[in-house]
Amino acid sequence: MNYHQPVLAPEIIKIFDPKAGQIYLDATLGHGGHSLEILKKGATLYALEADSDNQKIATERIANLNLSKNFHLLKGNFSHVYSLWQKNIKLPLDGLLADLGLSVNQQSGQNRGFSFNDSISLDMRLNPKTQKLTAEEIINTWDKNELYKIFTKYAQEKLAKPLIFEIIKARQIKPIKNGVELSKIINSYYQKKHYRSYHHPATKIFLALRIAVNHEFENLNKLLHASSKIVKSSGKVAIISFHSGEDRLVKHFIQENSYPSKKLLPEHQEIKKNPLSRSAVLRLYNLK
User: Fold this and answer.
1) Is 128 helix (H, G, I), strand (E, B) or coil?
2) Burial 236-274 (b: 16+ CB within 10 A, else e)
């Protein structure tokens, strides 16, 4: 199994310094990379995960390493973290972790819609069982003003207007059904204009769609505000973000509450080993 590599894991464990008798919450379980390291230290860990595939992958991985004793899976999105904490934990947490990136199977898998190379889907829902809105619906039915709003607000796409024109022109001929079709429309515009891009030209459009489909900014705000209610006064919160919009929300929340904090970035060695970590930003804040 090609497990997702956890970002900044040694740094987080050093900062948290988990011990037996302490309680931690991993709000984004994924493949369990960060959770495993906390469990190895003997702490009790609750972990939230909305994706049913990841729930299975992480639970089996933890069981195979005989670490299930102190592990408790909570199914759902971290936007409901406060109610889930009230129902299942009730005790103040020693630490809270959230890695806001997608796991590798979500990023590159077929029939999820997150990938430029997905020839089957343009879905992008983290939990299709509980969510209705898809990226396919947005791309094919939202008007130019609605598309412009999410492309600029969520992803700061400078070419939003001409790309929207290309998208609307294409969908009038036939519906855009998958990631490959959408990325080709954007790539074709870049080639026509002889534009160059450091990242894949469709990166920001896909990012904006994912944020809109999964209400990522709203959910992150809910998680941040819940952290001050569920983490003990001496506890620590670690949030790993992967784009400026998320990081800005975390930074502003910390500043508004005057929480002691620090910012960490992956070192060159980690980026070389795990290129997906290159855009990661870890902000750690202490409750007081």
Assistant:
1) coil
2) bbbbbbbbebbbebbbebbeeeebebeebebeeebbeeb
Query: Exposure pattern of 83-100 as b/e (b: 16+ CB <10 Å)?
Result: ebbeeebeeebbbbbbbb
- The single residue listed with the structure tokens 């069981």 is 63
Nearest in space to 20 (alpha carbons), one of 70, 72, 84: 70
Q: Which two tokens stand for residue 17?
A: 């310094």
pLDDT by residue for the chain (288 residues), tens digit each? 677 788 899 999 999 999 999 999 999 999 999 999 999 999 999 999 988 888 999 999 999 999 999 999 999 889 999 999 999 999 999 999 999 987 665 666 678 899 999 999 999 998 888 899 999 999 999 999 999 999 999 999 999 999 999 999 999 999 999 999 999 999 999 999 999 888 899 999 999 999 999 999 999 999 999 999 999 998 999 999 998 899 999 999 999 999 999 999 988 888 888 887 888 999 999 987
Burial of 10 (0-12, 13-18, 19+ CB in 10 A): exposed
Q: Could you tell me the residue ranges of all domains in the chain?
A: 9-105+219-286, 112-214
Residue type, 107: Q
At 49, the amino acid letter reads E
Question: Domain 112-214 sits in which CATH superfamily?
Answer: Putative methyltransferase TM0872, insert domain (1.10.150.170)
If one counts every other C-beta atom within 10 angstroms of the C-beta of residue 6, the result is 25
Q: Which CATH architecture has domain 9-105+219-286?
A: 3-Layer(aba) Sandwich (3.40)
Closest CA to 141 of 133, 130, 153, 129: 133
pTM of structure: 0.89
